[in-house]
Amino acid sequence: RYDLSAKAAGHLGAEASNKVAEGEWEVELALEAAALISGHVVGVDGQPIEGARVQALAAEQPSRPKWNRRWPFNNGVADSTGAFSLGPSAGAVELTASATGSLSTKMVVRSPRSGVRLVLEKGAAVEGRAVDQRGAPIAGASISLRCVASTVSPSAVTAKNGDFRLEAVPDGTCTVTGETFTAAARSRRALLSGKAKVQVAGS
After folding, report:
1. Which of 43, 47, 167, 166 is nearest to 105 (CA)?
2. What is the Cα Rg of the chain in Å?
3. What whole-number distance in Å separates Cα of residue 139 and Cα of residue 166?
4. Which residue in 27, 66, 103, 113 has the fewest CB atoms around it within 10 Å?
5. What is the per-residue pLDDT across 40-79, written as a single tens digit (0 to 9) for each?
6. Are the beta carbons of 1 and 9 closer than 8 angstroms?
7. pTM above 0.70, yes or no
8. Concatenated DSSP letters for 13-43?
């Protein structure tokens, strides 16, 4: 079995694999010219978000045999002006931008594309402490949060004093859950807007 791959600057990668006898197979790897996607990541106030992560994933799976397909992933980081540039890519691409303390956002564009503007909204911060029935802090508890109107699901692990902090939480009604290996989960619903203090009580 032979696995072949080809790469070249400014082109999409190609690969092929097949089970053949040595010296009996010829293969042609066609490399497509690649195009760039560029733009800026900003906050709702229009200010650039330095260090924001941008990922590109092929929104359309290529209609090619499995032994000759293009590689779909591409990643980049916004600079001090919020600018990013991704390549190589082709066709429809789904962009996902994320940054610490902000809610992620997605956009589908067609490559090549310049002037893309990805806007990140600030999320709430939820702080609290996990305690047992006697009020003693629980260290190492897994804290998770699920919100009614969002697929965002931040998580954290409590510190030695039981404290935890969840970042980038969307406003709305959410359920905070705390679990340990020895205690059943306990949940508490809270209406979140801005910052919220939530105490998760274990058993």
Report:
1. 43
2. 23
3. 16
4. 66
5. 999 999 999 999 999 988 876 555 444 334 444 678 999 9
6. no
7. no
8. -EEEEE---TTS-----PPPBPEEEEEEEEE
